[in-house]
Amino acid sequence: MTAGTRSVPAAPEPDLRYSEEEDALRASVRALLADRSDPATVLAGLEADTPCDTGLWQALATGIGAAGLLVPEALGGAGASAREAAVVLEELGRSVARVPYLTSAVIAVTALLGCDHGREEVAAPLAALAEGRTVGVLAVPFTTAPGRVPDPAVRAERGGTLTGRATSVADAAAAGLLLVPAQGPDGPALYAVEATADGVRAAAVTPLDLTRPLTHLTFDGARGRLLATGDRARTAVERALLTGAGLLASEQLGVAEWCLAEAVRYTTRRTQFGRPVGSFQALKHRMAALWLEVTSARAAARYAADALATDSPDAPVAVAVAQAYCAPVAVRAAEECVQLHGGIGMTWEHPAHLFLKRAKSEELALGSPGRHREALAGLVDLAPPPSA
Q: In this structure, how many other beta carbons lie within 10 angstroms of the beta carbon of residue 133?
């Protein structure tokens, strides 16, 4: 190396394999979901019109300890990483479980970790989230993409009084703690607001995906506790959205894997002309093509999870790749699952529609594939496509 030059540290080599600990975590979560979140249970919960399966959430959050995976041990968590959280999300995607894991244990926790968690105002809610004593959500539209965070629609007075509106906030109906980005007197800020506080109004929105409710939140003089200001508040929100988008790919992977497995299972049992329909060459080609896409989606999702876990400088690129690829694959897998089931796939009683609705809604969540492709082009210095 010549004098006067600096070496740039290389990004760590990605590891896409699952560790023994991750496999053990998967087995525990899968067993719980098989017992508590089978399709009949999910459908019954939707018909009961409850915002989430509180019993399942408590078993997942406290029984297994999944709610605190991203929280350091010193703050009451497990001190694990995005890799372990990704494993949990894969299994939740496989069962379209009605729990606020992505929004609370990933996005809200990451936002709090971006604040000064040595302060009691931050450490206390982090511990509550890690122990499953409450559910937290970041009060931004669920379609908000990392790197595309608009100016807050909520205004904060110097005393912490909040006024404004946050639309289409995912899982806010089940939340006890709202993390509210606001424009304060000294610039951007992040506040903690109790969901039941005076001045907070919630209006339910009918979503496409009934397993993940959306809510419009209105703040009319609600009192908030200041968590962070300025660049720290902005960075905390950005990091939370980046982590959420990256790990959402693992949930989309789980959706796609279930749809492929269910399509194969059904077509090997359904007979026509004395043969299983899955033995027909045209259907075998469709399922083989889908298998290739799901396998590639697994690599993209694991790459994003590993980059986030190791705090790799390539994390924004990995997340953009994962979302640009995994979201459309989940939709295609769900569409194929419905079509290969024929008439029964269009019924309410068969769970295929739950996976299709989850996949379609997640295609817009935390940024559409088009937005992530645009972000990826900027990250790797690619020229945008020529205008028509």
A: 15
* Verdict on whether the full-model pTM lies above 0.90: yes
CA pair distance 81, 101, nearest whole angstrom: 15
| Radius of gyration of the chain, Cα coordinates, nearest whole angstrom | 21
**Neighbour count for residue 348 (Cβ, 10 Å):** 10
CA atoms lying within 13 Å on the CB side of residue 254: 23
Dist. CA 330–CA 324, nearest whole Å: 11
187: which strand partners? 184
CA–CA distance, 382 with 344 (Å, rounded to integer): 45
Neighbours of 23 (CB within 10 A): 11
Cα gap 314→293, rounded to integer Å: 23
Residue whose structure tokens are 């889908």: 290
Residue 240 clears pLDDT 70, i.e. is over it: yes
Q: What is the pLDDT of residues 180-219, one digit of tens each?
A: 999 998 899 999 999 999 999 999 999 999 999 999 999 9
Helix axes 82-95, 230-269, angle to 10 degrees: 40
